[in-house]
Specification:
The structure is a single chain. This protein is mostly helical and 192 residues long. It has one domain. The protein is 77% helix and 0% strand. It is built from eight helices and no strands. The protein is elongated.
Amino acid sequence: MRNAQKKESSSALLEKMNNFLDRYVLPWPVRFLTFRFVILATIALLIPLIVFASNTVMVLGINSYLNTMSVAVSSIVLLYATLSEANQKQIAQMQEQRAQEDHTHVTEMHQIILETLSNQQQEIDALKQMIAVMMDQPYTARESKPTPDLQALHPRGEGRFSQKDLHNRYQDNLYQSDLAEAIRQDFTPESH
């Protein structure tokens, strides 16, 4: 119990720290590194690197700067790619959830229409039977067909209507990797 509380508090602390960094710290290096003048100046540093190749201190200094910039840019690109992947997954989940809800709604409406038609057919048969009785004629009611199970009519069957259908389809179709799964879990939207 104590271990779980400790883990939960450290997780909450890490989340607060990440939120702080995302909001107040990380935007500054991104702004700096994506500023066009900084990009051009960094590229231009290749010239003194070549011209002053004999000056070891200058070459090492420029090389250190270029290595640092390279790592920073790579990290930022990876961070934004990760965020983009998480956002795209959330969008796809929302679209699939909405499509599933719409599909269920349309199927239910269709079922209501079929039941209404069946009820109308029964009422018409009852009226025909009453008219036949009034005219002293025999009447044989038509055999009514049962309404079809619309969920069974779907190409994927009743499984399409399962609550776990979306999750199962993602598991079957997404690239499986421990890192990707950890990223997906980190960016699962909280239900409000």
